[in-house]
């Protein structure tokens, strides 16, 4: 017996957001039904909408949200109706080898949820005619209500501003986590960040929180660089005006940065990240590129200078450990969420919100469905 809810559906790659009543099945074992309170528009939503990141269509996008639990399905412990939760776009099954070895960001269930199915491979959403409807990362938060894996719902205090706390779900965990978990940046480090959008700005503030002594932000967009300075960047570079390699040489006395983060998803800037690090430094790839993209780097420098390259998925986060950690940093005034929210809108405004993100005017537009 399925219910209905309003959701923004994208019917095919390149399609626009169409707000319709969809059918929503009740939560199965290990799932909860939630009401979405606030959900941010992230670049990955655009990448899927435009067909750059592969997905199954028709789809309900949206993967960065805070919600309220309404119905608790069977075999769910620790969640009650009325609980406020941050949603994680990687469920943590707790049972697979990755979850057990403390790498829950690689949880095996995500291979199916990344393609829009629930962890058990089935679907909860249907178009009005009964045909299948997929949900980005098993969340599909561009909707009034969603049925999600209980392991993806992390309880938080309901006293916090929903529009800000929603950003923890993707941008903050991905960006700050890349610094604190993946790279484990030490105090006094020199850091470069290529691309300071919604995720990259969180890499900048993560580097400040880690105690980096120099933070070089690189972006084509002047207003993003201004925000980067506000969040902790010590130097900013527009690569169309100046060469970031020159700035990094000046800042580091010629050697290169200890850590460079690529937060755009392009092979050219990934290569630049490799060129910006010092011997022994680490280049961290955060941006998801086109599926066909390849990185070409001088292998000799990798070996003889011990330059390292690492990928970072979801900031290597363990959401149950890291969401509370981010909220502590927020309470201490170290994590700035308010500056990242550049606008709020409704479900009907998603096409506009997507255009503002693509055009570089928005960092995060937060949708209140
Ligand atoms: N040089 C410098 N800056 C550039 C360039 C360039 N050649 N091209 C674009 N930029 C800047 C833009 O001006 C912008 O400020 C920034 O790069 C990109 O920012 P946003 O706000 O458009 O995008 P984000 O920050 O929301 O997301 C970007 C990612 C690439 C990190 C994102 O799409 C992604 O890949 N996320 C993580 C991967 C993943 O698995 N995602 C799934 C859920 S997010
Ligand atoms: Zn995202
Ligand atoms: Zn798992």
Word description of this protein:
There is one protein chain. The chain has helices at 43-49, 97-100, 110-113, 162-165, 171-183, 200-210, 222-231, 244-251, 267-276, 299-304, 319-331, 350-358, and strands at 3-10, 18-24, 31-40, 59-60, 65-72, 84-87, 125-126, 132-135, 145-149, 153-156, 190-194, 214-218, 235-237, 257-262, 277-285, 308-311, 341-345, 364-367. With 369 residues, the protein is an alpha/beta fold. The strands form 3 sheets. Strands 3, 5, 6, 9, 10, 17 and 18 form a 7-stranded mixed sheet that branches. A 6-stranded parallel sheet has the order 13-12-11-14-15-16, with helices on both faces. The radius of gyration is 20 Å and the shape is globular. The model has no long low-confidence stretch (mean pLDDT 97). The structure holds dephospho coenzyme A and zinc ion (2 copies). Dephospho coenzyme A is lined by residues 42-44, 47, 63, 89, 170, 174, 194-200, 218-221, 224, 239, 263-266, 269, 286-288, 357, 360.
């Amino acid at each position: 017996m399925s219910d209905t809810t309003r959701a923004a559906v994208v019917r095919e790659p390149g399609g626009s957001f169409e707000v319709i009543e969809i059918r929503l099945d009740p939560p199965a074992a290990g799932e909860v039904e939630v009401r979405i309170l606030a959900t941010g528009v992230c670049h990955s939503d655009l990448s899927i909408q435009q067909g750059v990141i592969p997905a199954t269509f028709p789809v309900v996008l949206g993967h960065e949200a805070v919600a309220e639990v309404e119905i608790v399905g069977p075999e769910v412990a620790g969640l009650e109706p009325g609980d406020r939760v941050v949603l994680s776009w990687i469920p943590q099954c707790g049972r697979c080898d990755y979850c057990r070895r403390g790498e829950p960001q690689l949880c095996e269930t995500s291979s199916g949820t990344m393609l829009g199915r629930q962890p058990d491979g089935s679907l909860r959403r249907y178009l009005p005619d009964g045909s299948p409807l997929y949900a980005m990362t098993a969340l599909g938060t561009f909707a009034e209500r969603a049925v999600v894996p209980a392991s993806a719902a992390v309880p938080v205090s309901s006293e916090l501003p929903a529009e800000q706390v929603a950003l923890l779900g993707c941008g903050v965990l991905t960006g700050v986590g890349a610094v604190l978990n993946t790279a484990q940046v030490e105090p006094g480090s020199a850091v470069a960040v290529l691309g300071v959008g919604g995720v990259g700005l969180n890499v900048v503030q993560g580097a400040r929180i880690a105690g980096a002594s120099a933070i070089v932000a690189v972006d084509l967009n002047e207003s993003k660089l201004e925000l980067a300075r506000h969040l902790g960047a010590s130097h900013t570079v527009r690569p169309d005006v100046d060469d970031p390699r020159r700035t990094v040489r000046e800042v580091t006395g010629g050697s290169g940065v200890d850590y460079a983060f690529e937060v755009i998803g392009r092979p050219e800037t990934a290569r630049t990240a490799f060129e910006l690090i010092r011997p022994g430094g680490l280049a961290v790839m955060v941006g998801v590129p086109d599926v066909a993209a390849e990185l070409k780097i001088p292998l000799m420098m990798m070996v003889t200078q011990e330059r390292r390259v690492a990928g970072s998925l979801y900031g290597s986060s363990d959401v149950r450990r890291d969401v509370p950690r981010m909220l502590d940093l927020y309470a201490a005034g170290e994590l700035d969420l308010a500056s990242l929210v550049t606008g709020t809108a409704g479900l009907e405004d998603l096409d506009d919100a997507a255009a503002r993100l693509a055009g570089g005017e928005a960092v995060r537009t937060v949708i209140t469905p």
